[in-house]
Design a protein that fits this description.
With 557 residues, this protein is an alpha/beta fold. Strands 3-2-4-5-7-6 form a six-stranded parallel sheet. A six-stranded parallel sheet has the order 11-10-9-12-13-14, sandwiched between helices. Strands 16-15-17-18-20-19 form a six-stranded parallel sheet, sandwiched between helices. 53% of the residues are buried.
Length: 557
């Protein structure tokens, strides 16, 4: 998460239209880019964004769903609200998926929608939708701005709500005539994020509980982290000999090479790790909500009173006690908690040493690819990525069974390198990779996508070409919706339905854009293909054709 040095608030301004007031307000709060698809209901905003005149760049996308996922990914990378600008009606509805991802992933994000003029509201005007009702269950706040003079106030409120407590998305609806109207309103100052801190008495009790444990386990996850905060927590756990597991898609919060890291509570995770969660006598959960995936469908801990002594640290008060009653709930932002933890004396050597070593050994054994495969060995492909990519390379992925190989066999070594949706949304990998490369042009960025996953976002490859972004997209092509087929085989074996895919030649698609594309059918050929793709200096697709009957690393039809 990056800190920002917001621009100073503007002096009392001359008369400006609503679009100019909006862009000035965003800039003051630290915005430097907006993702979106242009629409006529927000023309004054696009005029204010002309050639980045206000210091805010508009990133033109091909579909609002992908634009909203880029904004969400940018929010993950910076800790500031990712911004998405769309037109009313269909544009806003397409962008809904990114709002849902931001909600489930606890990512700060602001979606700005150009609304119908005030004079036509309530008449079912062209593309009219009531956004307050539509987004009520997936946004922290939905506001409709009634006057150009209210824009600075509403934008300031949006930034504060999106970033404080448990972060999440905010939706601002601005009628077309409000954006076109003029005002001489004074800009609001840059927002300041408030973060709760743990009480000294709670930290003392936390240490006492851990020191008295026999089988402690730390689970780290969620958002609002910084590299420094994650490092301080990892250092305390290492010094105390505490085993650390990552919550769902939070693997980059601790260096996976370190001996106290014991695995990832995810889809297809190690059964042995799940058993260790159940067998632990003390669980220190830092930042994670203990949602359905991390908690293994709420089976690893009893609801509402776990058998394990539970210490639950979270920045959102509404999450403490929501599902599980903690023995010690601590309301705190991750930075403040990490600072307090770093001030504690590490634990004295305890009876959990063998427990922690055994957990690490189980993790390392689980990372060995099975010897039996149906053909192309995706485990070897992921191990090669693990070996050759820089430690700070950003890996983006969407949803599908191909992610089981990635999460199981890859090792994340640096904070901010896992770009993955906790919402489980398909079509995230390519937009996430584009946002990451725009934010960090100096870093290697690789996207992994299944064939079905990629095709939901494939128009955005044009965006990568347009902005000359050297990302490598690995498309795992098994010609089926693999995760759904897996569930079909478990519940209705031998009766596949609606899961076969007819695919294009993905490498030829890349070449049609003037980019690099090639097909790999044998895992032995992948290293050279990856090297060629990385060497092009531009966007590239490596299509990996794998057998459709290899559903997971351990499941072959």
């Amino acid at each position: 998460m990056n800190t920002h040095s917001p621009a100073p608030a503007a002096q009392p301004a001359a008369t400006r239209n609503g679009g100019q007031i909006l862009v000035d307000a965003l800039r003051i709060h630290g915005a430097d880019r907006i993702f979106g698809v242009p629409g006529e209901s927000a023309l004054p905003v696009f005029d204010a964004l002309h050639e980045g005149e206000k210091g805010v760049r508009f990133v033109m996308c091909r579909h609002e769903a992908n634009a909203s996922h880029m904004a969400e990914a940018d929010g993950k990378l910076t800790g500031l609200p990712g911004l998405c600008l769309v037109s009313r009606g269909p544009g806003a509805m397409h962008a809904t998926v990114g709002v849902h991802t931001a909600w489930q992933d606890s990512t700060p994000m602001i979606l700005i929608v150009g609304q119908v003029p005030r004079t036509t509201r309530g008449r079912e005007g062209f593309q009219e939708i009531n956004y307050v009702r539509v987004f009520a269950d997936m946004a922290k706040w939905v506001g409709e701005i009634e006057s150009a003079d209210l824009i600075p106030e509403y934008v300031s409120r949006a930034y504060h709500i999106a970033t404080q407590g448990r972060p999440g998305p905010v939706v601002l609806s601005i009628p077309e005539d409000v954006l076109a109207s003029t005002g001489a309103v004074v800009d609001a100052p840059a927002f300041h994020r408030a973060s709760p801190a743990p009480a000294a008495s709670d930290m003392a009790r936390l240490r006492d509980i851990l020191q008295g444990a026999q089988r402690p386990l730390v689970i780290i996850g969620g958002s609002t982290w910084t590299a420094e905060a994650a490092g301080k927590v990892s250092a305390f756990c290492a010094a105390s000999g505490l085993p650390v597991a990552a919550g769902f898609r939070s693997q980059d919060l601790v260096n996976n090479d370190l001996p106290h890291y014991v695995g990832h509570l995810t889809l297809g995770s190690s059964p042995a790790l799940t058993e260790r969660v159940k067998a632990a006598d003390v669980l220190l959960v830092i930042g994670d909500r203990l949602g359905e995936i991390t908690s293994k469908a709420y089976s690893a801990l009893d609801v509402p009173a776990p058998k394990q002594t539970l210490i639950h640290v979270h920045p959102g008060a509404e999450e403490l006690g929501r599902v599980y009653n903690a023995d010690l709930p601590i309301l705190s932002g991750m930075e403040r908690f990490a600072d307090a933890l770093a001030e504690l004396e590490p634990l004295e050597s305890g009876p959990w040493t063998d427990w922690a070593h055994a957990a690490r050994a189980e993790f390392e054994a689980f990372q060995q690819p099975p010897t039996r495969t149906a053909g192309f060995d995706l485990g070897k492909m992921i191990l090669h990525l693990r070996e050759v990519l820089p430690d700070d390379a950003i890996i983006a992925n969407g949803a599908g069974n191909y992610t089981v190989w990635l999460h199981r066999f890859f090792r994340y070594r640096t904070f901010g390198t896992q770009m993955a949706p906790k919402s489980g949304s398909m079509a995230y990998g390519l937009p996430g990779a584009i946002a990451a490369k725009l934010r960090h042009p100096e870093r290697t960025v690789v996207a992994l996508a299944g064939d079905g996953c990629f095709q939901m976002a494939s128009p955005e490859f044009a965006t990568a070409v347009h902005y000359k972004l050297p990302i490598v997209v690995i498309v795992v092509n098994n010609a089926i919706y693999g995760s759904i087929r897996m569930h079909q085989e478990r519940h209705f074996p031998g009766r596949p339905s609606g899961t076969f895919l007819t695919n294009p030649d993905f490498a030829a698609l890349a070449r049609s854009y003037g980019a690099h594309g090639e097909v790999v059918s044998a895992d032995a050929d992948f290293p050279a293909a990856l090297a060629r793709a990385r060497a092009t200096g531009g966007p590239a697709i490596v299509e990996v054709r794998v057998p459709s009957n290899q559903l997971t690393p351990d499941m072959i039809l």
